Every structure is written in structure tokens, then in C-alpha cells.
UniProtKB/TrEMBL annotation:
The keyword Transmembrane applies. The chain crosses the membrane at residues 35-53, 59-76, 83-100, 106-125, 155-172. Keywords: Membrane, Transmembrane, Transmembrane helix. This is Transmembrane protein.
Length: 481
């Protein structure tokens, strides 16, 4: 989003957002306000003519003409709706001034509050700059009008009104920002459905788990040779297919309970359906709710095959492409909108890319790297945690290391460090140390982290309850270079 106007950098997204705001907020307020004002003005015109009160008739007729012209304009030019709402607000102010003299003292507070509520409603549905303009002009006019008519000079009330004008501008900006954030999140909910068919060539089944209804819900499928087009078909498949004497529904439910939100689960298992045994690869991702991706192969979908062996190499290549694609596109989205949930998903993808690179490459290449650059690279992934880096470096901070193994260690350090915490980096001729408050590195894991710890970490000590001290080897301990 742009810094001041908050408009999206992507033109198409901005058009979709404006269309949504017009449909759900601006048009209902515009129509109800204009039709309501038209009905009231007609009734007022009839009563004035009946009681021979002709002084307000010209103003009432002018208001009716304005309302009709506005309705016609917005019907054919929807893009002018914000301008129309601005003029409608000013017409309400004029209408208020004209009618105020004929309102009783008892009904006057209710009359004034009703018009103020109308002003606020219009402000809430406008964009940032339009709302700023409306707030300043509307309440400045009322403030000036009050100052000129006031004989007691209530300066404390004038000052409070000015402060409230500024605070209302701030609230309008925050509400606009949150509205645009919610729009982006709604669009990202369809991210899986849009990109998976393009990057996964194998037949697959995508579904989610609703924690409130406690059921699996169908989202998407591709090139399946059995019927699965809705949630009922999905339930039938999960309940009639078994893995180790339990249905797939029970199996995935238990897997969802075991895998924490900080990680993703992925595995290849054997399943059976009507005495046909074959392998599937499933992955569990978390984005607002658990997402399950079940991948099949063409051979697996052949009913003549009794036992099919999946290809781990092809699966890992497809998985790597999936993570890489997510990372690249989420990176662009996060640059436009600092959203913690998108950053969290991006980090999961980046972690899996590192795992793939480290486990695939069996050759060890020690290279000289700039320490600050390595740390800043990973720090960019965790900006939402607002972690401070404190350096204690006595010499040029070039280190000899395994680049991607070092990234993997840094990733776990930033992930384990507490929010708004600090990471102390001490480097001299004798050692390189990282000290922080948070979670300890998991040395019992089975992925690339265990390999990185083995080659790079000399000592890992816990000092106090949550204070962690990591000491890095001067040069990696690799079995053979």
C-alpha cells in the first residue's frame, strides 16, 4: 500500500477493493440517505404548503432537485460516489441550518445528534484523503459558527473540539488501513486454489479442517479418476479408504492434532481402498486453518496397479517448486502489506527451501561470508518480531562457514527468540557466540537442522530459565572437503 493514501500498488486490487466498498458500504448509505431525505423533504413540503409556511419551500425544492440529480449521476457513474457523498454531507449541513430555527428546544439535541451521526457514517465509508477533507471542513465550519455565535467564549470546548478533529482523522486512517488489510487477507484465502493447479502437475486433492464444525471440507481437486467435487464426496473417500486398519479421516484428524502450528507435516504412506493398495504423499500446511494436500501419481490412479511405489525424487522436486513459488509470491505481498500471518507462511516456505537444499546437496563447500549480511538476510524474515541485534565484534566480521547451514541455524535462532527480544552476537579470534532469550535449538529433529547443528554448533548451553548461549565452530566440522 502507498504510505499516505493507503491505495494498493496493484491497480487491479485497488479496483476490486473500491468495487467491494461501493457495493457493501457506500451504495447502501448513499441510497438510504438520499431516499430517506427525499421522503422527509416531500412530507415537509406538503406540511409547509398545508400550513401556508412558504419561507422554507425554495430550500426544500432545491434539495429535492439535488437528490434526484445525484441519484441519476451515481447510477450511471459509480466512480463518482465518494464525491456524491461529500456533497450529500454538505447538503445535510445546509438542511440542518435551515430547519434548526423551527425545532423546539426539547427536540433540538436529538435533531443535532442525528445529523452528526449521518456525518460520521459518511466519513467511515470514504477513503483516507476524502475522509480527512470531510472531517476538517465539516467540524471546522461548526466550530467557527459556534465561536461567532458564542458570547461566553468557552475556550476549553473549542480546544477539545480541535483535539477530537485530529483524533477522528487518526481513527479514520486506522479503520481504512484495517479494512484494506482484511480485503487482502480475504484474497489470500484463495491463494491455494489459484496457484496449485499451475505448479502441481500430478493429480491432487486439497481440503481443509474446520475446527469449529470438526470436519474436513473440500477445497479443490485435479485430474482424479474418482468422483470428488464437494465435501460429501471428500468424506466418502476419507471414510472408505484405510491406512493401517484406520480410516483416512481418523488418520488425518490425529495427524492434525500431532503437528503443531509452528511446523508442517509431510509424509508418504500406503493406503488401501477396495483391496487396492497404493501410496500417497500428503502435506499439512497452516494458514488460518489446517490445509491438507494429498498428491497422487498417474500410476497410483490406475486401478490395475495393486502396489505402486512412489518416486521420492519426483516428490521432493515438486515440493521444492511449491515452496519456492509460495516464497516468491508471498514476498511480493508482504512488501505491499506488513501482515504477520503472511510473513509466518513465507517463513515456513523458506525453511523448507533450506531443508531441500541441504538434504539434496551432499557436497560441502566452505566459503568466506560477511557475518552482518548473513544475519540481516534472516532478520528480514522476522521483522514482525522486532528483534534487536547487538554486535560485539573486535575484528573484520568475515567468517568461514557453510552458507546454507549457517542460514538454517540463524533461522532457528530468530524463530526461537522471544518477540521484542535481543540477540547478542560476539565475535573475536577465539569464538563466535549467539546469546538470546527464548527456545533452545531442537537437536533431536530429523531434518536439515540436525545436520547444521552437527557441523556448526560447538556448544549449546542454557543459562537461567530461558537464556540460550550458542558457540559456533571457527570452521565447520565436515567429514570430508
Amino acid at each position: 500500500m502507498k504510505k499516505y493514501s493507503l491505495k494498493f500498488l496493484d491497480v487491479q486490487s485497488e479496483l476490486e477493493y473500491q468495487s467491494q466498498r461501493n457495493q457493501h458500504f457506500r451504495m447502501p448509505i448513499f441510497k438510504s440517505g438520499h431516499y430517506g431525505m427525499l421522503v422527509i423533504s416531500i412530507i415537509k413540503l406538503i406540511l409547509n404548503c398545508y400550513y401556508s409556511l412558504y419561507s422554507d419551500v425554495p430550500a426544500i425544492i432545491a434539495t429535492q432537485i439535488y437528490i434526484i440529480l445525484s441519484l441519476i449521476l451515481v447510477k450511471y457513474k459509480r466512480t463518482y460516489i465518494q464525491i456524491a457523498l461529500l456533497f450529500f454531507n454538505y447538503s445535510l449541513m445546509a438542511y440542518e441550518q435551515v430547519l434548526m430555527a423551527n425545532i423546539s428546544l426539547i427536540a433540538l439535541p436529538l435533531f443535532i445528534n442525528s445529523f452528526t451521526i449521518c456525518n460520521i457514517l459518511i466519513i467511515l465509508v470514504l477513503d483516507v484523503f476524502e475522509s480527512y477533507f470531510l472531517i476538517v471542513t465539516t467540524f471546522s465550519y461548526k466550530l467557527i459558527n459556534t465561536i461567532l455565535a458564542d458570547t461566553q467564549r468557552s475556550y476549553n470546548i473549542y480546544a477539545a473540539t480541535c483535539i477530537l478533529i485530529l483524533f477522528l482523522c487518526y481513527c479514520s486512517r486506522r479503520l481504512n488501513f484495517q479494512s484494506r488489510n482484511n480485503f487482502l487477507l480475504c484474497q489470500k484465502d484463495n491463494l491455494w486454489e489459484k496457484i496449485l493447479p499451475k505448479i502441481v502437475n500430478q493429480p491432487f486433492l486439497l481440503f481443509s479442517f474446520d475446527n469449529e464444525k470438526i470436519e474436513f471440507q473440500y477445497k479443490l481437486s485435479k485430474s482424479l479418476n474418482f468422483q470428488c467435487n464437494n465435501t460429501n464426496d471428500l468424506k466418502n473417500f476419507l471414510r472408505t479408504t484405510n491406512h493401517q486398519s484406520q480410516s483416512l479421516e481418523d488418520f488425518f484428524f490425529k495427524e492434525n492434532q500431532k503437528v503443531s502450528r509452528n511446523e508442517q507435516g509431510s509424509n508418504t504412506i500406503m493406503i488401501s481402498n477396495k483391496k487396492v493398495v497404493y501410496a500417497i504423499t500428503y502435506s499439512i500446511f497452516y494458514y488460518q486453518q489446517p490445509i491438507f494436500l494429498v498428491q497422487f501419481t498417474e500410476d497410483i490412479l490406475n486401478n490395475n496397479s495393486k502396489i505402486i511405489q512412489s518416486s521420492p525424487k519426483q516428490y521432493k522436486q515438486a515440493q521444492f517448486k511449491l515452496y519456492k513459488f509460495f516464497f516468491q509470491h508471498l514476498q511480493k505481498s508482504i512488501c505491499r502489506n506488513d501482515c504477520q500471518s503472511l510473513g509466518f507462511l513465507r517463513n515456513i516456505c523458506y525453511k523448507q527451501i533450506l531443508n531441500y537444499k541441504l538434504l539434496r546437496n551432499k557436497k560441502f563447500k566452505i566459503s568466506e561470508q560477511k557475518l552482518e549480511s548473513l544475519i540481516q538476510h534472516v532478520q528480514q524474515l522476522f521483522l514482525y518480531k522486532k528483534i534487536t541485534i547487538i554486535y560485539d565484534i573486535q575484528q573484520l566480521s568475515n567468517i568461514k562457514t557453510l552458507k546454507y547451514h549457517f542460514y538454517r541455524i540463524l533461522f532457528e535462532i530468530f524463530q526461537g527468540c522471544n518477540k521484542r527480544g535481543s540477540i547478542y552476537v560476539k565475535y573475536n579470534e577465539a569464538s563466535l557466540q549467539f546469546q538470546y532469550v527464548g527456545k533452545q535449538l531442537n537437536q533431536d529433529c530429523n531434518d536439515s537442522l540436525q545436520q547444521a547443528i552437527k557441523y556448526l554448533i560447538k556448544h549449546q548451553d542454557r543459562r537461567g530459565k530461558n537464556e540460550i548461549l550458542l558457540q559456533i565452530y571457527q570452521e565447520p566440522l565436515v567429514p570430508f572437503i
